[in-house]
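Final report, Chapter 2: Outcomes

The project's central promise was a pipeline that accepts a single protein chain and returns its three-dimensional structure in a standardized token representation, suitable for archiving and comparison. That pipeline is now operational. To close this chapter, we reproduce one record exactly as it appears in the project archive, with the input sequence first and the structure output second.
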Amino acid sequence: MKISSLRILKSFLLILFGIVSYSHALEVGDKAPDFNLQSTDGTRYQLSDVLEKEAVVLAWFPFAGTKGCTIECKSLAQNGHLLKDIAATYFMASVDPIEDNQVFAEENNADFPILSDPTKQTAKDYEVLSLGWYAKRHTFYIGKNGVILYIDRDVRPETSAEDMAKKLIDLGIPKRKESSDLRMANPYSS
């Protein structure tokens, strides 16, 4: 009887802390969970609204200001030009408070939105919440139709921008159309 009670308690704790999930893990071909998150640029972004215009890359990271996350952010800030002519909006995202992500964005000259999910609900929806308190470093590539095209679970922070650009091209995401419209030149402006 004691062994059975201990197994039940252990299973409950594993599920509670997100170590084991009995739900279906998100995979390529699944519909991406919608979100509405605050960004470091002062805008709230809803996935479904962004997908009306172009594909989305959602790069989850564990904590603002830590070594690997700083390297990844700098890669995107310094080499984001590789992504600017591809018809995709890219975000970094964490469960940090918006204030922490704003400082992080400023310190690393991030010229792209960093999303904050302090309630951790979106991280749970994307099944990236680790031990219940930080996001795993996974990057989701989402087509305009809202379907997950690819999930990178082995992100290399130092080549994040280059890897994103290559993957978007490999996935057949088109180049931006030439336009005098400022929205096309800067997809992050409102």
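Archive annotation: The first strand starts at residue 36 and ends at 39.
This record, like all others produced under the grant, will remain available to the consortium after the project formally closes.
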